[in-house]
Design a protein that fits this description.
46% of the residues lie in helices and 8% in strands. By secondary structure, it is an alpha/beta fold.
Length: 978
């Protein structure tokens, strides 16, 4: 009876408290019953359960083998912690990592738990497996108040962890000022090194902790390096910690010159040095001038070393340009940087700031002397080369125009006899293929051209940093004009100098015009590299399309109105962000990435020339397009032309190809090249022949009665348009017929579409500066924008990778390339588009195909074969997923669409995934195909459509129904005509 009543009471208590009232007999089960109560500090319930239980309060459980006392200390459950201690819990029990309950309480700042643990004799000196004690944990997290209480129980405040680090080390590293002061007040060794010789000051500087570094220095910390010779200043500069460097210099002024000398260290990141010197220069005007003067002196020394032929060219060149870049950066951001455009360094305005350039005058004067020396050597050989004589005749009258500051004396020609040649590449026929001057003179040029060109680059940088953006220093222009022919001699012998050092040409049209003929004679590949190097030089990263995307930066466009919706979102987008990268998403679709971006460009390039918008008209050859002179029928035509320019500029900026070709005359307009009468043939071949006839024949006695005016059809009405003022009364004669032909050409090819051209260029130049695009001619621009017109199969094979089990020698791969070689060029284009999302190959071939993370080779991946399984693709990574077909015939049929059923069928690919009830329209050969979705189909798969040849006839315009079928795995969908 009593036992039954007891069971009833236990049942009642359990139901009322919604928990068990007895612990299980085994510790493993019991501990998991108690743990949530301990975490919630339900000490009464824990006490009741423990009262009549044999549970071992020191039982260690879980992966880390902690006791309930660890749990209570970790969670701050002080009541449960006290209860467990009273029940005999061991306060010094260590878990698998060596941590005691005191460690956990210290780490989490549980003050009350720490106090109770100390009352029950917790050992503050116990180390965990990493050598950390409780005071280490307090120092890491800056628990100064708790540290005050704990240090009274610590026998050694400098106790070290496994790496020899004390609590002071970690407190300094984490920037806890009051914790550092508490440890120092408690007797911590301020200069204690760890196992690698790093002191607390070293640790503070490694993380740029200015305040803790200042406390240490104020208390007399020594400036010591570690065992590898790395100093606290090294760490500050490596991290770009200008404020901490400032504190170090306050206590150790000699370190200022050390920082200046660090500008020569190639191992230090330049942007970090800039940050440090930028901060230091902002402290005062005197500090700013001191930094600039010191940098100028170091640059001058390095420049003179570079001009010494016995020095290492590559190292000295990099050092000089690095120092000068830093110098110019600091000069621009100084406390009183010039904003009025006055060339203060060179115009005689003796402000204190202009004095910082004074040390550099020694270098510039030496540069001038070197060029004069070379001119003199060329003069001595004028009998051997009429070109060289021409150079020196121009130079001779300018020899007295150098700077007034005496330079160091460059070596005379006799000193070259026993010196090895420099690193510049020699090139025969230095001046336009003429006979070279003497070997001695040419050796002088070979040994000095690269070195002098690097100093010229430094000179330009220093001149430019004093001018407003977009302006070139008059002094530098004068310098180049003075030495024009000698510089041309340099680049004729070694054209690489242009791309390495003559960047100033891109920023000064006047100077560019002097060298343009030499630049355009350089390989197209070299000019492309120079183009993109400078196009992206000011951007924070070089990944372009592949930068991380913010949701607000995504261009959300509608497929059914892609042209208008894209125009709207691009016009609102941040131009600078678009230059860095593009992210496109189609409304209602999840797909994003490189493949979607390529598809977007491909669709837009076709929409730009859509006759519905009346922006462009087909030329006479039927394959190229020209701006429509009557595009004003569309009220928004100029906005659309600007948008078209933006799209082509963006495509060129991000190396995306467009599936569109323009007339040569339009490419010339983009490049700023004047059109000529031969360009008229693209829009009116017969009229072009007539103009050619006028030029080829004497028209004096023909009675043509032509005047300098023409009749033009303006929306059905004929109007007479003068070619020049009063042109209607000026007759065309044999003497002025060439002018007439040029003017009438400009009317037809330029004046008639000038507003359209201007609007297009306005958008294009938002992404492509005119100074850069002029590096190319109209043929090369077409190549840049639209890629190679032919697909080189051998190049395709050469730049293909294999994965998932495939190798080059496998039969399936051999069959694939045989199929590729057998199919028509058009089918190759379609296959390429299926895999990469683009129908064209970029300049440079398949090696330059872009993927989702930069350059990405065409890749073929193996897929297990099942009957009727079709290939699929991942356009973002240019991957063809090719099943392991058992025969070439099956592979060909599955790749190209069952030739037995459709002997001469055409096919194309849709990059959209139709959903249930959704319609997608596509045009093929002018025929609109209406695709209807049947069921939920997999996204991000390109869908292949096969069309009978009779359906592709241009006369057939009505929508054609298609239906959907897909494989059992849902990986591929094929759309057939219904």
């Amino acid at each position: 009876m009593e036992r039954a009543m007891e069971q009833l009471n236990r049942l009642t208590r359990s139901l009322r408290r919604a928990r068990t009232v007895e612990l299980p007999d085994d510790n493993e089960t019991a501990v998991y019953t108690l743990m949530p109560m301990v975490m919630a500090d339900q000490h009464r319930s824990v006490s009741e359960l423990l009262s009549n239980s044999k549970f071992d309060v020191n039982y260690a459980f879980g992966r880390v083998k902690r006791s309930l006392l660890h749990i209570a200390a970790n969670c701050g459950s002080v009541e449960c912690l006290v209860l467990l201690l009273k029940k005999g819990a061991n306060p010094n029990y260590q878990d698998i990592s060596g941590c005691t309950p005191l460690h956990l309480a210290a780490r989490n700042g549980q003050k009350k738990c720490m106090s109770k643990l100390l009352e029950y004799s917790a050992d503050v000196n116990i180390c965990n497996n990493e050598g950390l004690t409780a005071i280490h944990w307090l120092a890491v997290n800056g628990r100064t108040e708790l540290l005050h209480d704990l240090v009274q129980h610590v026998s050694d405040v400098d106790v070290e962890d496994a790496m020899g680090q004390t609590a002071l080390h970690v407190a300094c590293q984490n920037g806890h000022k009051t914790t550092v002061q508490c440890l120092l007040d408690s007797g911590a060794d301020i200069n204690r090194p760890n196992v690698s010789g790093a002191t607390p000051l070293y640790f503070a500087c490694s993380h740029g902790q200015r305040d803790t570094a200042q406390i240490l220095l104020l208390r007399g910390a020594k400036y010591l390096s570690d065992k590898n010779g790395v100093t606290p200043l090294d760490l500050c500069v490596q991290g770009g910690y200008g404020e901490t460097c400032e504190v170090l210099i306050q206590y150790h002024p000699r370190l200022f010159q050390t920082i200046i000398q660090m500008t020569q260290n190639e191992d230090l990141r330049e942007n970090m040095l800039r940050q440090v010197l930028e901060h230091l220069s902002q402290q005062s005007e005197s500090q700013y001038l001191k930094i600039l003067t010191s940098l100028a002196e170091v640059a001058t020394t390095n420049g003179h070393k570079l001009l010494s032929i016995s020095s290492n060219y590559d190292a000295q060149m990099k050092s000089l340009l690095r120092i000068v870049r830093i110098f110019c950066h600091v000069f621009r951001i100084g406390p009183s940087s010039p904003s009025n455009g006055i060339d203060m360094g060179y115009n005689g305005n003796k402000t204190p700031r202009s004095q910082v350039f004074k040390p550099l005058e020694l270098l510039w004067h030496s540069l001038d002397e070197w060029l004069v020396l070379i001119a003199t050597e060329l003069m001595k050989n004028k009998k051997d080369s009429t070109d060289i004589t021409s150079i020196l005749l121009k130079q001779k009258g300018q020899d007295q125009d150098g700077a007034s500051i005496p330079p160091f004396e460059p070596p005379g020609p006799e000193s070259y006899e026993n010196l090895s040649t420099g690193t510049g590449e020699s090139k025969p026929d230095a001046l336009g293929g003429k006979q070279e001057a003497s070997a001695d003179c040419q050796d002088v040029i070979s040994m000095t051209a690269n070195r002098l060109s690097a100093v010229i680059q430094a000179f330009y940088m220093c001149c430019s940093c004093q001018m407003p953006p977009g302006m070139t220093s008059p002094r530098f222009i004068e310098f180049v004009c003075k030495h024009d022919e000698v510089l041309k001699c340099f680049v004729n012998r070694n054209p690489k100098i242009i791309f390495d050092h003559f960047h100033f040409l891109l920023e000064c049209p006047e100077l560019m015009s002097r060298f343009m003929h030499i630049i355009k004679a350089q390989p197209f590949k070299d000019r492309c590299e120079w183009f993109y190097e400078h196009l992206h030089s000011g951007q924070p990263d070089s990944d372009m399309v592949h930068r991380p995307v913010n949701e607000s930066d995504i261009l959300l466009v509608h497929r059914d109105s892609i042209f208008r919706s894209s125009c709207e979102v691009v016009s609102k987008a941040n131009c600078a962000k678009l230059k860095q990268g593009i992210a496109v998403r189609f409304h209602g679709e999840e797909g994003m990435g490189q493949g979607v971006v390529r598809e977007w460009f491909d669709i837009l390039s076709n929409e730009i020339v859509n006759p519905d918008y009346a922006l462009f008209t087909q030329s006479a050859d039927g394959t190229t397009f020209q701006p429509n002179s009557n595009s004003s029928v569309n009220p928004d035509h100029l906005n659309y032309f600007r948008f078209a320019g933006q799209i082509l500029g963006l495509a060129l900026n991000h190396r995306q190809l467009v599936n569109i070709y323009f007339t040569r005359s339009f490419y010339k307009h983009i490049l700023g090249i004047p059109v000529n009468y031969q360009d008229v043939a693209s829009i009116d071949p017969e009229y072009a022949k007539n103009l050619q006839w006028i030029l080829d024949n004497d028209i004096s006695d023909l009675g043509l009665e032509l005047t300098f005016s023409v009749e033009t059809d303006v929306f059905g009405a004929m109007e007479e348009v003068p070619l020049k003022p009063g042109g209607g009364s000026i007759l065309v004669t044999q003497n002025n017929k060439a002018e007439y032909v040029q003017l009438v050409t400009e009317l037809r090819m330029t004046r008639a579409i000038q507003p359209q051209i201007n609007a297009f260029l306005q958008g294009f130049h938002m992404f492509i500066p005119p100074s850069l695009i002029q590096l190319f001619d109209e043929y090369e621009l077409e190549l840049l924008l639209s890629g190679m017109p032919e697909i080189d199969v051998s190049d395709w094979i050469k730049n293909t990778e294999y994965t998932s089990g495939y190798e080059r020698e496998d039969p399936v791969i051999q069959w694939f390339w045989e199929v590729v070689e057998d199919i028509t060029p058009e089918e190759r284009v379609l296959l390429l588009q299926f895999v990469t999302g683009s129908s064209r190959v970029p300049h440079g071939g398949f090696a330059n195909i872009m993927g989702g993370s930069g350059l990405q080779n065409f890749t073929i991946a193996a897929v297990p074969y099942t009957p009727n399984l079709l290939p699929t693709s991942s356009t973002c990574i240019n991957m063809l997923k090719l099943p392991e077909y058992p025969s070439k015939e099956i592979q060909h049929r599955q790749l190209m669409g069952r030739p037995g059923r459709y002997p001469s069928s055409s096919f194309f690919f849709l990059a959209s995934s139709p959903m249930q009830g959704q319609s997608v329209r596509a045009k093929v050969c002018g025929v609109t195909l209406l695709q209807r979705g049947h069921g939920l189909l997999p996204p991000s798969v390109l869908y292949m459509v096969f069309i009978k040849p009779e359906i592709c006839m241009p006369a057939r315009r009505s929508p054609t129904q298609v239906f959907v079928s897909h494989s059992t795995k849902g990986e591929t969908t094929v759309l057939y005509l219904s």
